Amino acid sequence: MADETHAAQALFHEIQQGLLNRRTVLRRAVALGLSAPTIAALLAACGGGDTADGDDGGATDDPTATSSAPSSDGTATETADATEAPSESGDDGPGKRGGILRVATIGEPATLDQHQTTAGITALIGYCVYETLFTYDKSHRPIPMLAESYDVSDDGMTHTIKLRSNVPFHNGEIMTSADVIASIERWGRISGVGKNLMAATESLTAVDDTTIEWKTTEPYGTMLVVLSSNTQGPAIYPKSLLDRSTDEPLTEIIGTGPYVLAEHRPDVHIRVTRFEDYAALEGGIDGSGGRKFAYPDEILFIPVPDEASRVTGMQADDYHIAMDIGNDQYEVLKDAPNLNVEILPPRNWDVFFLNWRSPIWSDIRMRKAFQACLDHMPIMQNSRGGGDFVQLDPSLMMKPTPWYTEAGKELYNVNDPDLARQYLEEAGYDGTPIRFMCTQEYSYMYGAAVIARQQMEQVGFVVDFQVTDWATVLERRAKPEEWDIFVTGHGFVPDPSQITYVGQMNVYPGWWSDPEALELADQLLSETDFDKRYAIWEQIQQLAYETVPAVKTGDSSTISVMSKKVGGFDAVKEQSRVPYWNLWLEE
Amino acid sequence: MLRYVIRRFVLLIPVLLVVGVVVFILVHLTPGDPAAVILGPDATQEQIDQLRDQLGLNQPLYVQFFDWFTGALRLDFGDSIFLNMSVTQALRDRAQPTMLLTLYALTIQILIGIPAGVIAAIRNNSLLDRALMVMSISGAAIPSFFLGIMLILIFAVRLHVFPSGGFVSILDDPVQHFKGMILPAFALGFSSAGLLARLVRSSMLDVMREDYVRTALAKGLPERLLVIRHALRNALIPAITVIGASLGALLGGAVVTETVFTIPGMGRLVVQSVARRDFPVIQGAVMLIAAIYVLANLLVDVLYVYIDPRIHYDST
Known about the structure:
The structure holds two protein chains of two kinds.
Chain A: H1 2-16, H2 22-32, H3 36-46, E1 100-105, H4 120-126, E2 134-136, E3 142-144, E4 147-152, E5 158-163, H5 177-190, H6 192-199, E6 201-208, E7 211-216, H7 223-227, H8 239-243, E8 259-265, E9 269-274, E10 285-286, E11 289-290, E12 298-303, H9 307-315, E13 321-322, H10 330-333, E14 339-343, E15 348-354, H11 364-373, H12 376-384, E16 390-391, H13 417-427, E17 434-439, H14 443-459, E18 463-468, H15 470-477, E19 485-491, H16 500-503, H17 515-526, H18 530-546, E20 550-556, E21 559-563, E22 566-567, E23 584-585
Helix pairs in contact in A: 1-2, 1-3, 2-3, 5-6, 11-13, 12-14, 17-18
Chain B: H1 2-29, H2 34-39, H3 45-55, H4 61-73, H5 87-122, H6 127-141, H7 144-158, H8 174-208, H9 211-218, H10 223-260, H11 266-276, H12 279-307
């Protein structure tokens, strides 16, 4: 296998330098005895240089890979039959292939290496290029992606993951257990979630080329959730790439995804092109998983940091999709003849964090005074636009997930200034200014903070309102001595362990450290049974209202702005992150 | 003359030194952490500390300054924290859009400003004069970003004749390049054209009242020849000062214009780098812009000699 990899790489380099045409590649690859998928991947790398070979480049798009019996070393029949593998014609799904999808993004990602950052922009672009063992289906439950099947022992401590066979990377190598283990170990050294998982790992070993066995020191209830993460998730890279790089952000990105990273010009664009040998799953689209059609020939991610420029660019038909358009643009854009503008299901909630390490909040009556003084609707209206864009809901887990609960709702949206004054008086509040950090960089944060400040002052809080840029908030919120409140948004998460101040309890700024909650959080992480976990989660949410680590204001929707030329959005709009590979261009 | 130019070049060093020190201090005293920006909103403090160590941000400030400054003396401005390339490379990649944008804006400024000023002066107190001056005052008063947005709304959104933004290299596709650059160049150049027109008008009026102009007129010189050959040449000296100074203003204005028109130039790089706290890039870019500014002023001073033979710099 190692020899094959080596030979394939050598060929690949020659192809990259434009030295070989498809026919030569095919002849030499067969002579070298390379496996069918490797040959097909190599052919794809040469592009359509030699028309005599027709569409053979798409030969390995082999949907049968998951159902056919895999050979022990993960390679298939080693003959020129590669070129006769079933072509994918006839199953193009509902959409149209072709065209360049132009996406106006909010800016330049710090890196495209998924292991490094929780930044949404990295995930949005990156998940076109690489994949994870598991991903989320349309109801936000983990389903296999690069994994084929999964088994957990009765004690919940041994997880056996069977990988799909014949899944090629963009460099022509075939994914094996070695790639998966190398990727997961690297992710486990870098990401916070990964470190937690690796700390609980006893061993992670390859049973064979397509099976890994993962033993943990305790039952690990969130294993699949963690492996499905769509921010800073365990993207699977080829081991050969990781062997020649460090734990610093990768500069070369290779994955198994439906698109290949073709060009990255910082602040100009990121261009991904269809991976013709992508090993697609059979069946239909299922949330972020299932069949990936890769309709557009290319996707161009263009950084347009200025929102007004994204809006005018959409109006002028310069882009097909614009990310992050503020809700206040809805009225302006909804009647635009060339655009589809719609309000998406709620995907964010806003939250005020209280600093548990600040002396001011050490008295629970102070925290309860803050909780009681807030009238949530005006806050939501000023931050997220009111109307159809906001809704009040006590559940920290959103409705489409099975985790929804109203536990603690009597303490949600209290809006009782007299009660707040009473708490302040009982606590003996002496008028020490409350240091309230916010930023104008995100208008919703500022909008929420301004109204909350008014409501606090009305009951007698003295507020030291500190407006800085977001980078400053990020830096200062890590220092317990510098602040009392900050406001931020929380994105949709499919599992309660992914709520920042639950999964990272006593670590995430605010440092919620109620002893009972800490113990429950541990149980939530180790328990594997859904019903038991749900009961634990209800208690945690109850405590989140009773002990006030933070105050959730409400849920909010954002709008999606797309060109009318874009098709396929209805099938995927429930997803928290748009799978661009299943969108198509109508023209 | 040569000695003067050399002396001015030598003076560039202390200027850049001061700029370098001030920028370094400002940038590093501004709160905000590049590591936190890179790692994303949910990063833990431990991860941030680790990355800060890797980036050398935990070293004492004077050590960081010394490292950076000794590098800068060798024209090595270090590596971008965010972009995975050297600062020199990052600036070089973005030089073309900014330089061309500034050049086009300067051209528009001159093409509009000088004729408008001359015509207004010749037709002094006429309706045309009034109209031109209303235009030039409006031009100077409207911020370039607002003008930019208006131009986009009219020409990109409504009429679809120009793109709303973006940049195509002149080498890749000259037609698309110019189509894309017309609106931003106009947005940027129009306001300085207004200032220039007012200046040219008033200095033309001064010159036209001079005795030699009256004499030339009395001798029967045609008005067009008189205006172009005699009056304008003398009226241009203050204009050149303004054009030279506006080069700096245009470079500064490019920061805003490039953001509105999504042009990947140096101006937008500076804005983005501030948001990302990419210290080396901010420092390098500000040094470069300062150097361009100083050199533009030097160029203006040298041009004086050619336009006005009465001006000498050497003590002889």
